[in-house]
Amino acid sequence: xxxxxxxxxxxxxxxxxxxxxxxxxxxxxxxxxxxxxxxxxxxxxxxxxxxxxxxxxxxxxxxxxxxxxxxxxxxxxxxxxxxxxxxxxxxxxxxxxxxxxxxxxxxxxxxxxxxxxxxxxxxxxxxxxxxxxxxxxxxxxxxxxxxxxxxxxxxxxxxxxxxxxxxxxxxxxxxxxxx
Length: 179
Hints:
Layout: E1 2-8, E2 19-20, E3 23-26, E4 30-31, H1 44-49, E5 59-63, H2 64-71, E6 86-89, E7 101-104, E8 108-115, H3 121-125, H4 129-132, E9 134-136, E10 142-144, E11 148-154, E12 156-158, E13 163-167
Parallel strand pairs: 5-6
Antiparallel strand pairs: 1-2, 1-6, 1-13, 3-4, 3-12, 5-11, 7-8, 7-13, 8-11, 9-10
């Protein structure tokens, strides 16, 4: 079980999202008042390709342990600074399989869809940050560490301090891929 340590949203296209006392997740849409909420893609690069594609990136979650790791490399990253909606602690988000259900607080339920693919905007925020959020396995496979994406199945309010309960999917557990 993990914990929510911060929640963030922004109603305009901005890289960083200011922290809030709470956010409301809306079933099938995402974070109320966030520019990325909707049933179809909202990220600019994806809208340019095909605006009718389903939005598998309604909620961005990132683990605060990444911020700790980045601090050892000289980066000071605060919750919301690199665009996430929910900052967590105590849960290995990157190890979760596709389809994992996360109960955020008492009401909200999200389904993990995949990995956030780090992009050049990280380097605009802090030079070298994109490379710092990438790694390689011993066999050379690329590891993306910039968080995970999810869709909202059940809405509800999410606040810092809320518990995160994990339900792993039944059947084969597929590793996360970029969405």
